[in-house]
Amino acid sequence: MERFSPYGPSHWAVLALFAVGAVVVITVGRRYRGTVVAEWISKLLALAILAVQIPFTTYTLLPGQFDLNTSLPLQLSDLAWMAAAYALWTRRQWAFALTYYWGLTLASQALITPEMDGFDFPHQHFFMFFSYHLLVVWGALYLTFGLGMRPGWRDYGSTVGATICWGLVMLAFNTVAGSNYGFLNEKPAVGSLLNLLGNWPWYLLSELAIGLAVWALITWPWVRAGRYRAQAEVA
Predict the structure, then answer these.
(1) How far apart are CA 71 and CA 45, in angstroms?
(2) 163-180 pLDDT, tens per residue?
(3) CB–CB of 164/58 below 8 Å?
(4) Distance between CA atoms of 75 and 167, rounded to whole angstroms?
(5) Is 112 exposed, middle or buried (0-12, 13-18, 19+ CB in 10 A)?
(6) 34 pLDDT higher than 60
(7) Domain residue spans in the chain?
(8) What are the respective helix, strand and coil percentages of the chain, to the nearest 5?
(9) 192 has pLDDT over 70
(10) For residues 187 and 25, which has the higher predicted lDDT (pLDDT)?
(11) Chain-centre distance of CA 110, in angstroms?
């Protein structure tokens, strides 16, 4: 079986599927916003994420498959799918915030520049990697542009704090276990955008600075729009 190649036919097929799915979830969300149908669609998306991730996570933890360096659900993408499933099921603002920032930046980046050193379509790892990233991003788009949930500066701050806490914990864990979750202790062996950000630990600081700036940029328009709406209502 062939190895996965970024921007090969299978990768382009995934990106096309992502674009079509994004249009569908946003359109359907807007059409049924505020109705029981929207609630059911939200829960179905949550169940789809769980249906993909729980079996895959369980499989990687089995004795014949377990690898301390890769099997534990400790990546930020693991936290993203958990937050997305919870946000879709409950509409809790804090879970939506994590889904919004992690989903629309980190999960979408994984779709565009996948760090996947594995087999190509139709291998199970191909399906697992892309399916849950697609579902997380679709979930974030559905909640934001479909159902109208919005982030604010408090959400920005709480997500930054949660991300930094995760990073500090994983740095300590990686050091003790000899793992490299989140590529926090060294850059990936395969080509990566991290190669443009310098050596360790400077690429971590660069990555954090870029993340803070991008998250601020995708927060500001919503805050500004909310202020305009409030002023219009007062007037």
Answers:
(1) 24
(2) 999 999 999 999 999 999
(3) no
(4) 10
(5) middle
(6) yes
(7) 9-234
(8) 70, 0, 25
(9) no
(10) 25
(11) 8
How many angstroms separate the CA atoms of 166 and 43, rounded? 27
C-alpha pair distances (Å), 194 with each of 52, 174, 188, 207, 225: 28, 18, 8, 8, 34
Q: Is 119 helix (H, G, I), strand (E, B) or coil?
A: strand
Q: Which is nearest to 139 in space by CA: 167, 172, 100, 176?
A: 100
Q: How many residues does the chain have?
A: 235
Q: Is the pLDDT of residue 195 over 80?
A: no
Mean pLDDT of 108-129: 80
Distance CA 99, CA 89 (A): 12
**Above 60 in pLDDT, residue 233?**
no
Whether the ω angle into residue 114 lies within 30 degrees of 0, i.e. cis, is no
